[in-house]
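Holo model, PRP. Inputs:
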Amino acid sequence: MTKIRIAIQKSGRLNEDSLEILKNCGISIDNGKDQLKASSRNFPMEVFYLRNGDIPQYLRDGVVDIAIIGENVLIEKGHDIDIAVKLGFSKCRVSLAVPKSVKYNSVQDFEGKRIATSYPNTVKNYLEEKGVKADLHIINGSVEIAPNIGLADGICDIVSSGSTLFKNNLKEVEVMLKSEAVLAVSQKITEERKAILSKLQFRIKSVLQARQSKYVLLNAPNDRLDAVIKLLPGMRSPTVLPLAEEGWSSVHTVINKDKFWEVIDELKQAGAEGILVCPIEKMVL
Ligand SMILES: Nc1ncnc2c1ncn2[C@@H]1O[C@H](COP(=O)(O)OP(=O)(O)OP(=O)(O)O)[C@@H](O)[C@H]1O
Ligand SMILES: O=P(O)(O)OC[C@H]1O[C@H](OP(=O)(O)OP(=O)(O)O)[C@H](O)[C@@H]1O
Ligand SMILES: [Mg+2]
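Output:
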């Protein structure tokens, strides 16, 4: 039987969330400790556990068909690789930073300076576009220490909370790109495996939509129903059911989780009571 071959980071920041999203898609993976390859019991899929930085080459060679990888790595090493869907986790940016004490005006300040980074292509392209020439020092980790030990004048690295920059007395001065985990696809994927990919994509979409949404149940007096319903768009329109107590209704709907706290005060003011908010496991539109 044909299986789709997916690359997942062996260990590191993407590993857990990548396995979690497959699990939420109902895909069980037999996973022995220290195994570099595993198969799914209930979906035509083989999983390869690889280093994040090696994955673009595996995709290019067609050794794997798809991968869960940081968009930033594709920008650095995989311009020829397609993105099927953005996965909404491991959000970060790739930025230039300099010591806090340095007075910074513009990207032109990097002219002739030494920049330490693990993302040389990204920095080179960014600076070329701005007409700036700098001297790049490629290092694989602990990049933020470079200015403190006299290795570089500035750095380019991943920033999320900013705490690593802060602890190393650096400040972020240019955001070069924003990134999140994505499902990437090899250009060499066969038609047969594309059919499996489209099944997987359908499941991932349902999981991501569900993660973004909450199921809301509330009670409202019938004479306030119109005002309550106006605040609740729902998937099509809210469900309204009579309560056992005369003159009251129960309203059921789906709300985008980012909007929930905004809407709740308005709902209370409009007369809603006993508001319940529940997670949604899957959502098929
Ligand atoms: N602090 C962070 N916050 C959010 N996302 C991050 C952060 N650091 C890294 N990422 C994202 O997670 C990906 C994996 O990062 P991680 O540090 O685990 O691996 P790595 O050392 O770059 O790769 P490898 O697997 O080759 O060792 C990065 O490419 C980036 O997309
Ligand atoms: O802005 P922050 O929230 O501090 O995150 C940024 C840091 O996270 C990543 O390092 P990681 O912890 O993955 O270590 P690594 O260099 O060993 O990959 C990245 O390389 C930064 O150093
Ligand atoms: Mg890291």
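Residues 238 and 253 are 5 Å apart (CA to CA). The longest strand covers residues 170-179.
Archived with the compound record.
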